[in-house]
Specification:
Radius of gyration: 15 Å
Helix content: 25-40%
Strand order of the largest sheet: 1-7-6-5-4-3-2
Number of strands: 7
Shape: globular
CATH architecture: 2-Layer Sandwich
């Protein structure tokens, strides 16, 4: 992890195991419809945001209650000059306790200020992590993008 990789941390009252389960429920906090599964090591899933964003993730690390890492194996970010800018980057969720709280540290390894996507992607991630994922862990109901309302089509 590079210190310039985009990172966001949330603090919740739920257990590390509850946070872990919520993170793995990608439909509950990122986008309501995904292709594939996002529950266990080796699972692969893809997300589509209309003709704007497509990415395929593979779960390459999964330690219940502690850590989840996705490797982005394929991307097509049509709003960028380099549409494959996310290829080979990783998304990491570190879960730990601090006092009586559970902390979740999200890091998109490779999403750094010098790349084109940084401004828009870091802003979107911040909203998804600090609002939608936080709410899913805290209340059981996140605010994922609703695919049919977004007008999502396949890549």
């Amino acid at each position: 992890m590079n210190s310039t990789d985009f990172t966001a941390t949330i603090s919740v009252n739920q257990t590390p195991e509850e946070a872990f389960d919520a993170i793995n429920n990608v439909r509950g906090w990122w986008i309501d419809e995904i292709e594939g599964s996002s529950r266990k090591l080796g699972d692969e899933f893809a997300v589509h945001f209309a003709d704007i964003h497509y990415s395929k993730q593979k779960i390459v690390e999964s330690v219940p209650g502690k850590r989840i890492v996705w490797l982005i194996t394929e991307s097509k970010l049509n709003f960028l000059e380099d549409k494959k800018e996310w290829d080979g980057t990783k998304i990491s969720f570190e879960i730990f306790t601090k006092g009586d709280k559970t902390q979740v540290r999200f890091t998109h390894v490779g999403l750094v200020p010098k790349i084109e996507c940084y401004r828009d992607c870091s802003s979107a991630w911040k909203d998804y992590i600090t609002s939608s994922l936080y709410k899913l862990i805290s209340t059981g109901k996140g605010e994922p993008t609703i695919k049919k309302e977004f007008g999502v089509t396949s890549h």
